[in-house]
Design goal:
This protein is an alpha/beta fold. The protein contains 10 helices and 10 strands. The site of calcium ion has 3 residues, from strand 2.
Length: 284
């Protein structure tokens, strides 16, 4: 009976905050998203060397900060600066900016029409600080905006000796998110971590939150969008978060939409569908 209700009720999730207007995952971007009326504000969560949880999309720092200038020599062999190799104090000393790439020694914005690279001052913050920010706004506005944390690269973190999933769920519990009716979805791309959260981590903490299985196309992932795959995911997740072209093929034209059966399968298995990412950037 829930399928129709699910398909007719929409939520807006602010992807990395109002990231089209302010540098992603900054508190100003979250404030703007909140003020624009988002139902949920998203947090990508990564762990530092000293086991602190920070809100950042990449597990590396160089796309959105001045780490290469402030900490030369601290990259790994692949040339990247991993957040997990830096303490929170070191990370807080960085300046955050709109995402950029280096071209001929110059910082080139990945989205030239967005907030300019290197302008004004923005800082990375912790998951706890962002939860307090959203909960504070909920108190001052009387609204009830939710949070939407993603466990980033949990397998990578575990291999580095860091249990990111357990740490995020622990913070959520500390801030009062304990049951499915609370305004939080916990998301991850890694199905093993989804199962671990469902079967081990949440029971151990005595909490039961809504989980979302993020989906992306590509080799090895086909099973997830099959009828059997969606049935299996539904044993652990309350929803799926597919890349939008997995629902409407990119070759679609007005009046000629090529629509997959993903939404039907998800709803048939009692799951919500939260596709990503809807944005104004050309070609996206
Ligand atoms: Ca995310």
């Amino acid at each position: 009976p829930s399928a129709l209700a699910q398909s007719s009720s929409k939520v807006v999730v602010a992807h990395r905050g109002a990231s089209g207007y302010l540098p992603e995952h900054t508190l100003p971007a979250k404030a703007m998203a909140y003020a624009m009326g988002a139902d949920y504000v998203e947090q990508d969560v990564v762990m530092t060397k000293d086991d602190q949880l920070i809100v950042i999309h990449d597990i590396t720092l160089e796309r959105t900060t001045d780490v290469a200038e402030k900490f030369p020599g601290r990259s790994r062999a692949d040339g990247q600066f991993y957040a997990i190799d830096f303490t929170l104090a070191e990370i807080l000393s960085l300046n955050l900016t709109e995402g950029f790439s280096m071209e001929n020694g110059q910082k080139q914005s990945n989205y030239p029409h967005r907030f300019p690279v290197g302008k004004s001052i923005f800082k990375i913050h912790t998951l706890a600080q962002e939860i307090e920010f959203v909960q504070g706004l909920n108190q001052s506005t009387g609204r009830d905006v939710g949070i939407y944390p993603e466990i980033k690269s949990p397998g990578f973190h575990l291999a580095e000796g860091k249990d990111l999933g357990r740490a995020v769920l622990t913070v959520l519990k500390q801030y009062g998110y304990t049951k499915k009716s609370d305004k939080v979805f916990v998301q991850t791309f890694e199905f093993d971590e989804l199962k671990r959260m469902h079967d081990e981590l949440m029971p151990a903490l005595g909490i039961d939150l809504k989980l979302v299985a993020l989906l992306e196309g590509g080799e090895g992932n086909e099973w997830m969008v099959s009828a059997d795959g969606m049935k299996e995911i539904a044993q652990y997740a309350d929803g799926v978060g597919p890349e939008k072209s997995m629902i409407v093929d990119r070759s679609s034209k007005p009046g000629d939409h090529k629509i997959s059966d993903l939404v039907k399968l998800a709803h048939a298995n009692g799951m919500q569908v939260h596709p990503y990412t809807f944005r104004l950037d050309p070609g996206q």
